[in-house]
Amino acid sequence: MSVDFNFLTSKQKKVYTAIESFIKENGMPPTVREIGELIGEKTPGAVQGILNRLEEKGVIRRQPRVARSIQLVQENSNYADHVYLPLIKKISQRNVDDLLNMYNIVKYYPVPAHLFENAENHFIIQCPDNSLLDSGISYEDTLVIDMKPDLKDGDIVLLMYENLTILRYYSPHEDSDKVVLKADSDLIGKEVFSRDEIKIIGKMVAKFTKY
């Protein structure tokens, strides 16, 4: 990576090099704690300060409030800007309100930045439901979910109903306290739900399929 180290201090060079090496070895950026371990700095605030200086000098870029979001900046790069989205392990009644807690994240994966605005509201999950199989969505697919969508008629949503994590086509109901949720094959036996009995986790905005 072509970076002019002449305008970086020795500590800034050390942190930059540690980040670059970590990404090459692990395929994702390090956390502040991991950077501290790599350079022998025990104080997170000190590491954060160096990262702030590197960002001010334009050699790294970060997403606010998103772990592992450090990107190394290179002028005239052939590589498109990217963001890192977390792949989560599971969704359950116990963690549905805190899906992005550190214990539920498997790994962060780079995706093209232009595809996902407000990336901090997105996560990746292995498809948990086969009820939209006729629509081409199956257990083998990997889904990207937007947790803060502006829902429209016909959107595909991921939701919890009782202990089930399911996919459905969303439609508003004439009764504002209800919602219509349709599937290609419905084993539950209902399409109209009270908003109190479901938890809409988010809208499916992308699907990765391996052929």
TrEMBL record:
Gene3D superfamilies: Umud Fragment, subunit A (2.10.109.10), Winged helix-like DNA-binding domain superfamily/Winged helix DNA-binding domain (1.10.10.10). The keyword DNA damage applies. PANTHER family: LEXA REPRESSOR, LEXA REPRESSOR-RELATED. Its EC number is 3.4.21.88. One of its GO terms (molecular function) is DNA binding. It comes from Acetivibrio saccincola. CDD domains: S24_LexA-like. Pfam families: LexA_DNA_bind (PF01726), Peptidase_S24 (PF00717). GO terms for biological process: DNA repair; DNA replication; negative regulation of DNA-templated transcription; proteolysis; SOS response. This is LexA repressor. InterPro entries: LexA, LexA-like, LexA/Signal_pep-like_sf, LexA_DNA-bd_dom, LexA_repressor, Peptidase_S24_S26A/B/C, WH-like_DNA-bd_sf, WH_DNA-bd_sf. It comes from the Bacteria. It is an enzyme of class 3 (hydrolase). Residues 8-68 form the LexA repressor DNA-binding domain. Residues 103-205 form the Peptidase S24/S26A/S26B/S26C domain. Keywords: DNA damage, DNA repair, DNA replication, DNA-binding, Hydrolase, Repressor, SOS response, Transcription, Transcription regulation.
